[in-house]
Design brief:
heterodimer; A: about 130 residues; mainly beta; OB fold (Dihydrolipoamide Acetyltransferase, E2P); B: about 290 residues; alpha/beta; Rossmann fold; 2 domains; 6-stranded mixed β-sheet; 5-stranded antiparallel β-sheet; 8 helices; globular; Mo/tungstate-bd_C_term_dom (chain A); Mop_domain (chain A)
Amino acid sequence: MNNFEGFIKTVHVNGNLSIVDIDVTSDILMKAIVIDTPETASYLKSNAKVSILFKETEVIIGLGDQSGISLQNKIPAIITHLEIGNLLCKLDLKSDAGIFTAIISAAAAVALDLKVEDEVIAMIKLNEVMLRSL
Amino acid sequence: MIQIDLNKKLQAAEGEMLLKLKIDIEKGEFVTLYGASGVGKTSTLRMISGLLNPDAGKIIVNDEVWFDQSKKINLTPQKRKVGYVFQDYALFPQMTVLENLQFAQTKKYGAKAITSLIELMELGQLQNRKPETLSGGQKQRVALARALVQQPEILLLDEPLAALDTTIRYKLQEYLKQIHSEFKLTTILISHDVSEIVKLADRVICLEDGKIINQGTPEHVFINQKLSGKFKFTGEVLKVSNEELISIVTVRIHTEVVKVVVQPEEAQNLDVGDKVLVVSKAFNPLLYKLRAR
């Protein structure tokens, strides 16, 4: 499981749902949607330290400008290692948020012509991000 | 209210161990003792039932003193209102199911009450059979019924379901749940099965070397509440298979089997039999309504 650490910046609440904005670095803001509110989960408050967890298989890889896409969790990263199998491809990635891994299809890696040292944008849907209070 | 304050020197595998426990249990509470073998769980139940004498301490059940070393009070096992169920059933082999129940019957417990208990535990078809002709699950139902005809205030269960296969265990957990509330019992269960504890217990008390190291609701003790995921189950690893670049872990959750994809590095830390928390976001699963054809 991929794991970044950050500090909660803002909690937007509506009914039983919250969208949590987390500062991972000064430039990287990540968002998670949770079925919790500050009333049901006391860690949902500004400046609380949290782990941001997401599966390797939930990472989307894009090349170039990704402004026309609905995903808001966008992490600029560099490929440090790449392993292509018959069906799947494992990418080790380095970013200001930390190192992490993505599993995408081998065909997609070939189609995008991904190589070590390439700059990519890693994206994660906000409903794929889990939080753990620290 | 049950107040237990026990001190007892025990011979453990690694030498002498001092069991030192102080537990208050509310009437009607379902408590589980959890811990490795030899930490003093069974000895605790034996001391509550009067089969083993503490070196010092007190056992007070609903204001009645069962044991008080300082006042030299020590009720015999027969005088303590305890139902005790073991893993190995301990039924009388020469008696039928019904006779086993009648033998344990207290004076106040009438024939009518036995009939309704037989009905509740679904023993009607079996009541004239001898224990040797019964399956493990059936024997344990008889053992539970026999504990209940003694009209216990406390039901002590020493891993009663550990020897049974998953499906039967699951069914008997339902019985345990039902009789605990129906008979307004205070129940103390020894169990190693995390999913069983989560299902049944109000409180789990974790023991190590004769001491309480942690206690709380099963969710609090076993399930990391700090995780925001709402799709959360405890399960047991059945199989780990390594595929290309990923690993697939087969996990039993109650009576269902599911598969979870993990990284090979994560799979390396998993062995068959390990207890795991399966957690996902509530946003991921799809629901299909089941319809009768």
